[in-house]
Amino acid sequence: MNENFNFELKRIDDVSIFKLNEKRFDAQIAGLVKGELTILLHTDEINKLIFDLSEVEYCDSSGLSAILLAYRIIQSNEGNIRIAAPTKNVKSLIEISQLDRILPIFENVEKAIEDLKSE
């Protein structure tokens, strides 16, 4: 099992951007992502989060559950989350699972930032 994963966390004003620099967002790393996000969201007072999925070519239900965990934590802090730049396959999975109803999808990070700042 993979013991780490590659990601970047950036802040632009009060918006945090979590970019997953992995081709696969599946059971191999989903648990690690959940752990990292749980720590970040509980300790860094993040209440506006963008998931940048531009590097992810494959995602399964484990990856989606990590995103949903972040959504639940942020919702409990009255915050918001957005999905940015998903690849075609990942976007299809999000839409098929109807998560786009609660997780708005934007074609790039800049548009997701604009949307979060308008709230």
Automatic annotation (TrEMBL):
Pfam families: STAS. One of its GO terms (molecular function) is anti-sigma factor antagonist activity. Residues 5-116 form the STAS domain. PANTHER family: ANTI-SIGMA FACTOR ANTAGONIST TM_1081-RELATED (PTHR33495:SF2), ANTI-SIGMA FACTOR ANTAGONIST TM_1081-RELATED-RELATED (PTHR33495). Belongs to the anti-sigma-factor antagonist family. This is Anti-sigma f factor antagonist (Spoiiaa-2). The lineage of its organism: unclassified sequences, metagenomes, ecological metagenomes.
